[in-house]
Amino acid sequence: MSKKKIVILNGARSADKHLSPILALLTDLLKTNIAAQVQIFSFSDITINQCIGCFHCWVNTPGQCIHTADAGESILQAVLDSDILVLFTPVIFGGYSAELKRILDRFLPMALPFLQKMHGEVHHPRRYAAFPHIIGIGISQAPNDEITRCFRTLVGRNAVNASTSYSAGVFYHAESPDRLRQGFLELFSTTEDLPGRDELEALMARINLNPPAKISLGKRRALLIIGSPKRKMPSTSAVLGEQLLRQLDKHGWQTSSLLLREDLLTPQGQQRLLCHVDEAETVIAAFPLYLDALPSGMTKAFELISSHREIAREKQPKNFLAIVNNGLPEAYQNGVALAICRFFALQCDMTWAGGLAFGAGEQLISGNPLTGFRGFRGTMRPPLYYVVRALNMAAHSLSKGHAIPEKAAQILSNKPVPLISWALWHWFLMRKGNKLLKNEARKNGLDIRSMYQQPISRDNES
């Protein structure tokens, strides 16, 4: 009987030396008690290029990332060949570390570009017939039920997208080895129910729970941090964030924006980011949903800002709010990402000014003006006046010293044609989106069959 193949993606950062004994305990347990063949990838030591949102892996070179010179493809190969995928990470604001998120963002080639209904929601089906069981192991500094719920939901949502099974748990680094062993064994012997709309809406309900009566209104300086990985084209995140900034300008605010780039990994880039944050009184994060959470660049920025605030002698009062968009019709699928943003604000001693979730962002906006008629790849769509209205309402509330009103969040999460049902909107979006993707592939010399290519050969299928 062959041994189970287990791949561990180790998201511990260079500062997380205290996690090394826990990882060693886990590895020893798997080899002795489960008799597994274990392969570990530690991303503090491996160079992985960031996903740049180009979608080449869907419509140019199906199943293959544009980054071919790094270790990304060999890691995806190992994952596909495994029976169990372990996501080992410090729990960062209820989610993964930036190091782990960087490789998870590169899982995009393992999904097909098409949209289809799965588990009662719209998702991208997987490219390969099978995907390993996912086990999420988060290590936290202190017990926190809300953060634990967020982390477990995130791992579960990753399993939903991969059409696989999962289990997840959060452990505390100071727990005894015996308690850790017991907890790990339980994780490897159980399978949890996949989290759906109810779990995400429960997270969303807590995002704006007990909003502050007042937010800071001294300098009236706002900084927009655009977290889209796109580099050579306008993004939906930028369009949404800049609409909010324009309205704040009209209310007399001083505004600026910053696009996160690869220089975020350099000391100069990090210093530039932190200087911009220090000068602002209100920080706005606008980004797309990436594998049910923040893109790795946005996660990295959050880590840097949090560390900077932690060691600051005097913490200046700051407000923080987030705008998250995804390419799927259900805005509630942004729930985990917004929960992470809320935990980030709380940990940084910033006033949480609220979160806005937007669905079908790429199809409806794709970097085009909100009041125009152009959508994804130049397709026609109605002007998005309801989006403008929601963002204008948010700006007005902020300028009065209040958090984002719930009404603005409700309007933004709606569909562009209010008279049609959600079922019809889902059908239309899937049909239209899939047709556009096929047309885009044909322009690149691909036929429809080639869009289903599986360039990564799997050992268990050879």
Shape: globular
Q: Could you report the average pLDDT, rounded to the nearest whole number?
A: 92
How much helical structure, as a percent, in the residues? 25-40%
Count every helix, treating DSSP H or I runs of 4 or more residues as helices: 15
Physical arrangement of strands within the biggest beta sheet: 2-1-3-6-7
Radius of gyration over alpha carbons?
22 Å
- Category from helices, strands and their pairing: alpha/beta
C-alpha termini separation:
18 Å
Determine the strand fraction and express it as a percent band: 15-25%
Strands, count: 12
Low-confidence stretches: none
Map the helices and strands.
Blueprint: E1 5-10, H1 20-32, E2 37-42, H2 56-59, H3 72-80, E3 84-90, H4 98-105, E4 116-118, E5 121-123, E6 133-140, H5 145-162, E7 166-172, H6 177-187, H7 197-207, E8 221-226, H8 236-250, E9 254-259, H9 267-279, E10 282-288, H10 296-311, E11 319-325, H11 335-347, E12 351-358, H12 361-364, H13 385-399, H14 406-412, H15 422-443
Describe the protein's architecture and organization.
The structure is a single chain. The chain has 462 residues and is α/β, with parallel strands linked by helices. Helix content is 39%, strand content 16%. It contains 15 helices and twelve strands. The chain has helices at 20-32, 56-59, 72-80, 98-105, 145-162, 177-187, 197-207, 236-250, 267-279, 296-311, 335-347, 361-364, 385-399, 406-412, 422-443; strands at 5-10, 37-42, 84-90, 116-118, 121-123, 133-140, 166-172, 221-226, 254-259, 282-288, 319-325, 351-358. α8 (236-250) links the parallel β8 (221-226) and β9 (254-259). α8 crosses α13 (385-399), α9 (267-279) packs across α10 (296-311) and α13 runs antiparallel to α14 (406-412). The radius of gyration is 22 Å and the shape is globular. It starts with a strand and ends in a 19-residue tail after the last helix.
